[in-house]
Write a structure and sequence with these properties.
By secondary structure, this protein is of the alpha+beta class. Helix content is about 45%, strand content about 15%. The chain starts with 7 loop residues before the first helix and ends in a 5-residue tail after the last helix.
């Protein structure tokens, strides 16, 4: 039994889109996209709102096709060698109320055949925010170590993202957490199977998974100068 949000039809649509990533095919199958991807995920965003508020009242669940929590399916191909016009995955991002884009602290759900995952944190924050996070880690290394070593967090998430090759300017190269300070992204990720994404209790499991990263998100949010 599947939940009403992530269904076999959603996965089937993206598998077919991957084989036929062009405008003619998409236009001919746009109703499939609306019925099996867009509308169910907009409902997920609506229904997850109360659970999100229990994690933090400062993150937003906005069930809109533009400017909301659901990423558009259309790719920005202006600066990409890959000119496929459509994404072959769905992305849901519950971002902080102070953020206006994907670079704000947030909770992210990625649904793709063979590559679904749940994530949280900050991806490519602006330099002032990145510097504040690095400085907070440098000033309180014990707190950062405690958070990322916490049993529930460490057994659920892997820290991912890119890092500098050299220590950032103004930070001690000999700092015990210099490898953490060199991070350019602060993202925690856990992979999920298709069966897990389609499970009847998916929303509850989603809230539980993000709840295990609550302190990690709180640290990044406060270090970014925002309330949690």
């Amino acid at each position: 039994m599947s939940n009403p949000y992530v269904t076999p039809e959603l996965y089937s649509f993206f598998r077919d889109l991957k084989k036929n990533n062009d405008r003619d095919w998409f236009n001919a199958n746009k109703d499939r996209y609306i019925q099996s991807v867009r509308d169910p995920l907009l409902q997920l965003i609506t229904d997850f709102g109360p659970l999100l508020s229990s994690i933090s009242p400062h993150f937003l669940a906005i069930p809109k096709t533009n400017g909301g929590s659901l990423f558009r399916i259309y790719r920005d191909v202006r600066f990409s060698k890959n000119k496929d016009p459509y994404k072959t995955h769905a992305g849901v991002h519950f971002r902080h109320e102070a953020g206006k884009n994907a670079h704000a602290p947030g909770f992210y759900l990625h649904i793709e055949p063979g590559a679904a995952f749940i994530a949280l944190g900050l991806w490519q924050p602006e330099m002032s925010v990145l510097t504040n996070i690095r400085q907070t880690i440098a000033d309180d290394p014990e707190l950062w170590t405690e958070i990322v070593s916490e049993k529930d967090f460490a057994s659920t998430y892997n820290l991912e993202g890119s890092s500098l090759k050299r220590p950032p300017k103004g930070f001690d190269p000999e700092h015990p957490l210099i490898e953490e300070i060199k991070r350019k992204d602060f993202i925690a990720v856990t992979n999920i199977s298709q069966e897990e994404a389609m499970a009847p209790d998916f929303l509850v499991n989603l809230a539980d998974t993000w709840g295990r990263g609550r302190r990690f998100t709180e640290f990044l949010t406060l270090a970014s100068g925002n309330p949690f």
